[in-house]
Amino acid sequence: MNILSIGGSDPSAGAGIQSDIKTFSNHNVYGFTVVTAITSQNTKNVTSIEPVSTKSLKTQLDSILSDFQVDAIKIGMVYNSQIIKVINSKLQRVKVPIIVDPIIKSTTGAILLKKNAQRDYKKMIIPLADIITPNRYEAKVLSGLSNASKSAKKIQSIGAKCVIITGATSSNGKISDFVLEEKKEYVISGKKIPIKNHGSGCNYSASIAVSLAKGKTIQNAVKIAKNYVYQSIKHSKKIGKGVNITHKNISSEVKELSDSINYFKQIKNIYKVIPECQTNFVFAKKNPKSVMDVLGISGRLVKSGKEVLTAGEIVYGGSQHVGTAVIQVSKKFPEIRSSLNIKYDPKIISNAKKSNFTVLNYDRSKEPKKLKQKENSSISWGISNCLNSKPPDIIYHKGDIGKEPMILIFGNKPSEIMQKVSKLRLAH
After folding, report:
1. Residue 231, by phi and psi: left (phi above 0), alpha (psi -120 to 50) or beta?
2. Which residue, 198, 302, 361, 374, shows the most beta carbons closer than 10 Å to its own?
């Protein structure tokens, strides 16, 4: 998945295209960049702005749009009317989600959109927006109105399909965003961290661009973005002598699981082993006590034609079934912290035995009736009843009435699971 960021260059990497690249990477998508202006700035101030020539901007856009699949576009700093007109002419016919982050003034107070360009901005940039994400100040500049609802409706009337006013209200340790979609309006709130920072607006709009590219609803996109921004402010760093720069820590566990998920998805014909209930891939903390100690995909790996897509984010508590399975195994074998579920196939079991894997199984039809009625108890019962003296590579069952047969692959970490998957030749 590829996303294009069109905006200013910030050498401090706190905002602008450099910040967007970090956000895209943290969301596990590839980022392209087109530079509209080169700024000289740090955590204290902006000392100069040099807009690129219209020729340079046109050739940058052409180089990306002529060669690559672009799944969403984010527009940030545009600075002047010449840049606005080029972007408008190049993107009018582009059929991917466009997210506009109206960059009018920097955190340190520098003007990043010329006053004499505001009219062209309203006429040529706002109508491109599937979503526009102004803060309260930017919304007032664009609409002339202070009230969030009225301001959003005015901006929508200019041409944006959806308007999200970030930080529309703030009270009792909460900060709320006002969302005006085409046919509904609502507020989404989150925790507020009183840290003056550089980059949170870019983080927010870039995260939303990722979610839209992945086909998520606007409401889900906003929730994901708010959480991402909260984490990036919470972990912000005082690198320079001025305001903090937002920063999102990606743990080694998340990266390990994410890399293995991507590897799994790229295996030829892997869609053939995705069961009806779909697939999850998990990685637990040491000695996990509950599924909240287990990383998993919040929506699972799903089959779409001959492709496998990630439907959701990698989060703790993302999997009940596979998460419970790895917890149960780790109680007896603490080194086992990862698991993946796939469709039951006798050939896979045969390959596993030929590869000298430790293969165990249990009979779901023998499960006590009381446990069958209790949610999420079947997996614990089945695994605890089949474990022996050796840590399992595979545990399977052949299903029961209304229960799909399943194979679970276990390992010390996700990369070890992928080594076992390679040996099993799953999708050949």
Report:
1. alpha
2. 198
CA 155 to chain centre: 27
Say which residue the tokens 């599937």 belong to: 130
In 3D, which of 310, 326, 317 has the Cα closest to residue 380? 326
Q: Residue 268 is encoded by which pair of tokens? A: 């030829």
What's the per-residue H, E or C state across the chain?
Answer: CEEEEEEEECCCCCCHHHHHHHHHHHCCCEEEEEEEEEEEECCCCEEEEEECCHHHHHHHHHHHHCCCCCCEEEECCCECHHHHHHHHHHHCCCCCCEEECCCCECCCCCECECHHHHHHHHHHCHHHCCEECCEHHHHHHHHCCCCHHHHHHHHHHHCCCEEEEEEEEEECCEEEEEEECCCCEEEEEEECCCCCEECHHHHHHHHHHHHHHCCCCHHHHHHHHHHHHHHHHHCCECCCCCCEECCCCCCHHHHHHHHHHHHHHHCCCHHHHCCCCCECEEEECCCCCCHHHEEEECCCEEEECCEEEECCCEEECCCCHHHHHHHHHHHHCCCCCEEEEEECCHHHHHHHHHCCCCEEECCHHHCCHHHHCCCCCHHHHHHHHHCCCCCCCEEEECCECCECCEEEEEECCHHHHHHHHHHHCCCC
Measured CA to CA, the distance from residue 103 to residue 227 in angstroms comes to 22
- The whole-angstrom separation of Cα 258 and Cα 309 is 13
Alpha-carbon span 158 to 160, nearest angstrom: 6
- Between vectors from CA 312 to CA 258 and to CA 75, what angle results, nearest 5°? 90
pLDDT of residue 315: 87
Token reading at 88: 């408008």
Q: Where are the domains of the chain?
A: 2-245, 252-424
Q: How confident is the model at residue 170 (pLDDT cuts 50, 70, 90)?
A: confident
**CATH dotted code for 2-245:** 3.40.1190.20
Is the pTM for the entire model greater than 0.90?
no
359 in Cβ contact with 394 (< 8 Å)? yes
Phi, psi torsion values for 412, nearest 5 degrees:
-70, -35
- Please say whether the beta carbons of 208 and 198 come within 8 A: no
- Supply the CATH classification number for the domain 252-424: 3.40.225.10
Identify which of 71, 52, 63 has the alpha carbon closest to the alpha carbon of residue 4: 71
Residues 87, 36: Cα–Cα separation, whole Å: 10
